[in-house]
Write a structure and sequence with these properties.
With 376 residues, this protein is an alpha/beta fold. It is built from twelve helices and ten strands. The longest helix is centred in the first third of the chain and has 30 residues.
């Protein structure tokens, strides 16, 4: 059965548990961070049990942060597809992007959860000891475990409130800007602020020799760039169906063709991906990567039926283009466009979607240039 890539998890993540019906997944980089924290705690002045408890508390704090986003989003009728834990925090993937006023409250919810946790733990420590000492936080011990967890939540709250995309503060900034500016411009400003902050963090990390800060800066910079591009793509494709951007002039292969036949077709056309047919029925998709791999392993006399992908991504021509955009945004991605009777109508690839976005940008720029001046 062809798959819907929009429901696929983020690559590099593994499912652990499900909370409130939302899959919680750990990205492999987050797992490496947990291992590093455990390794760092070994041999310190805190016990092994306290080290494990501290790492689990930080994990729970980030998870509760994301669940705060999830529950407020659910209040607005937005389902969360998954929560993925990364080294610099979690990422909640919503079914649809929130509107400006919805994004404000969804974004505030996460840091607010961490602030409440920090306040509660600080109050508990004060009630137990009569004071809250911050001076010894650099030396992990069993005695200051609760204080360190509280301080960690406070840092999570403040870090996420930085007015730079893709942090929550950047989303809050964008929601305010979107009340007075076009969404594309609001996103560009917020993403630019995120990249500028990341550059400053990276420079500070290099000057201070703090490579953890450089690592965080890299994640922030890439996150701002990727999310900014994703939002701009959604804005440019909103209101258009899939068939507006699909390729209708394409070639196909027969399931009995050889890898040599496929290679000749690849060289004689500008097409990179080929639907594989059995009569009038689509039975698979042969991508350029799969073709090259089969040429190396099976040789030119191998058959495309053995190299094709039977679990291909498919869309209908009337689906909203902005909804399927994430599925074809990665380089080399290809989906087949088929009607309800499984008739092949076209291809949707990352290359032709990029060309569609470029033409839309030019069209919108020309429209703004020729628009009559507004009357104050």
């Amino acid at each position: 059965m062809p798959s819907d890539a929009s429901q696929k998890p983020i690559p590099g993540s593994v499912t652990t548990i499900t909370v409130f019906g939302v899959p919680i997944r750990l990205h492999f980089t987050f797992i490496l961070l947990l291992v590093a924290l455990l390794f760092y705690g070994v041999g310190q002045r805190q016990s092994g049990a306290a080290t494990v408890l501290y790492v689990l508390a930080l994990f729970a704090s980030v998870l509760l942060h994301e669940l705060g986003h999830t529950l407020v989003a659910r209040h607005y009728g937005i389902r969360t597809l998954e929560i993925v834990m990364f080294p610099i925090g979690g990422v909640s993937r919503p079914e649809r992007p929130p509107k400006a006023n919805e994004e404000l409250w969804v974004s505030i919810a996460g840091p607010l959860v961490n602030l409440v946790i920090a306040a509660g733990l600080f109050a508990w420590v004060y009630a137990q000891t009569g004071s809250v000492s911050m001076a010894q936080l650099g030396v992990p011990t069993d005695a200051n475990l609760a204080t360190r967890v509280a301080f960690g939540n406070l840092l999570l709250c403040l870090f996420n409130l930085l007015p730079a995309y893709p942090m929550d503060g950047g989303r809050i900034l964008r929601s305010f800007l979107a009340l007075r500016k076009p969404e594309e411009e609001a996103t560009r400003i917020a993403a630019g602020a995120g990249q500028a902050l990341a550059i400053l963090m990276g420079l500070a990390g290099l000057l201070w020799g703090n490579f953890v800060l450089v690592f965080v800066a890299l994640f922030v910079y890439l996150g701002a760039a990727q999310e900014g591009a994703a939002v701009r793509g959604r804005i440019l494709t909103t209101g258009f169906p899939v068939h507006a951007a699909m390729i209708t002039d394409f070639r196909t292969l027969h399931h009995g063709d050889t890898i040599r036949d496929a290679g000749n077709l690849l060289l004689s056309t500008s097409q990179h991906d080929f639907p594989v047919m059995h009569g009038e029925t689509v039975v698979g998709l042969l991508t350029r990567a799969a073709l090259v791999r089969a040429m190396l392993t099976e040789g030119p006399e191998g058959y495309v039926a053995g190299a094709m992908n039977r679990d291909f991504v498919r869309f209908t021509p009337d689906q909203a283009l902005h909804e399927v955009l994430p599925s074809v945004s990665t380089p080399g991605a290809c989906a087949l466009v088929m009607d309800t009777n499984d008739k092949l109508l076209g291809l949707l690839t990352s290359e032709n979607v990029s060309e569609f976005l470029l033409l839309r940008q030019v069209s919108m720029a020309q429209a703004r240039e020729h628009a009559p001046p507004s009357v104050e």
